[in-house]
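I am hoping you can look over what I have pasted underneath with an eye to the fold:
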Amino acid sequence: MPVHPKIIQRKEYQVGTYDIDSQKRLTIPGMTKMMHEAAMQNVIDLKLSYWDLIPFRISWVIMRKKMEIFRQPTLGEKIMVETHPAGFEKLFTYRDFKIYDEQGERIAQASSTWLLMDTEKRSIAPIPEFVLKHEMPDMEFLPKPERKIPLVKSPGFSKENAVGWFELDWNGHLNNIHYITKMLDTLPREIHEGKSLKRLDLVYKLECKYGERLTAETQKGEEGTFIHRIVNGETGKEVTQGRSYWT
């Protein structure tokens, strides 16, 4: 079976003022947004987007992500985001991301794990044949994301807020990028200004809806490491876990 001509998506961006920090570096949420926009265009081209799957009563749900940042590009730089499916395993599907600068050097990469959810039963759905039929690109895939992250037991930093209207995605749930912003926003200012994030591991566990109160908690780990989690203040359930590495 031939590989779909649009199985690999490449999308160019220029780092703008709306996505930089005080040091003119592209923020991690900004970088993630570019990755996910490229992925969305990829599934639209493959006719596997959220809207294409509505008649089948299934929808994509991200479960895990492992992001590595070798260098944060700065204001005005042009970068290229490459993404593609990276295989199947039972109920799991995988997707890889790579970001390159104008010289062709890879400056960031991420691997991710996804499931399909039955939108009526709110349960995991099997991967349908029309998804499985797509041949994967002939290349080496990135290592898969971590399945488990250490638990937060004694948080040293925390912040509480409610899910806002402009934090929702097209599905009416908290956009997965905002899980990242809420976790990292618990860290003290000196970390953001004096350090660089080199790796971020994420485990998404539950969806969040408009108005729900969330508490993001962070615990300092080994040198340069922080462990994160977000808890739903209404149910007491953990909705996501994270681990970040800074240098």
